[in-house]
């Protein structure tokens, strides 16, 4: 059952109210503070503060500051006036309940609108990122096309220069060859020397022939040298790869899902190792969840609820898919006044009792009744009535459930 905070302090001026709520909790979060136009709530289990204000405030300008385990409210009034008290005293219960429900509905609507605005902003950001990515890709494509065009022009110019050099070399070789043929023709047509002796004539003729041969060999070698093209110059081709300058699209990224999966795997391995170390000291029958369940049932019947709770806890650690264990542990929490834990175990049992069939109808009735009882103990009668109605739908012939549901209705209506 929650511990209601009554030792709050408040001061007021005609324009504002200053409220200090001490909550001796180890950890107080912003989500635990609830403030609307007529309703204030600070929920930090087991401590709970709730107030239906005397007059409406401007919840947009009002602020709440968490410091040293306390919440300091600065509430600006909509109308400048002094209040007789901070909260509505001796008011109509139905009106106060309606104010609570309106506050919750308003906060839900604001949260929904804020979520839609964030989703729209996220879509706009993704669209902007996609447009920027497309522009980067288009600019990169144009740059590559321009670079290809420049390389093509450069290659064309080099080919034209090579053709011109080749034509000039061929022309030079043709001129040298024609000059050599003219000189050879002149030597053949030159008259012999008549004043020489026969022997000298022979000698001269032989010398002339030898000279012609030697001169012909020199020119032929020169012609061969001129006919061989010059060796090509050495060089190297440099290849540059353009870097990828644009980021990967966000829709292709799976890093958050992978990190979440790895964290879950590490937590599961840690729990398994811890359980294995603790299970080594247990006996064989103590490792059987059915034996532990029977042991817990016997302890519960004897009134030893804390020992029964420990038995159910160990059974759930061994096998956490048996709904009966959660149902029995919820009953222990109810007897020990651990109401929030009773609600959690009943909800877990209902999650495991799926699909709803005739075989698990009785267990589902128990889960709804135990959760409804915990809600009613927390004075959350509307939620408790819903569970009793759900149990009555499963078993319409149970008069006791119908009577309890009618009592809760009268409490909500303020008749009891």
Automatic annotation (TrEMBL):
Alphabetized SMART domains for the sequence: TPR
Keyword check for Cytoplasm: yes
Ranges for region Disordered: 163-236
Localization annotation: Cell projection, Neuron projection; Dynein axonemal particle; Nucleus
Entry keyword annotation includes ATP-binding: no
Gene3D superfamilies: 2.60.40.790, Tetratricopeptide repeat domain
Descriptive protein name: Dynein axonemal assembly factor 4
Originating species: Pogona vitticeps (central bearded dragon)
Lineage: Eukaryota, Metazoa, Chordata, Craniata, Vertebrata
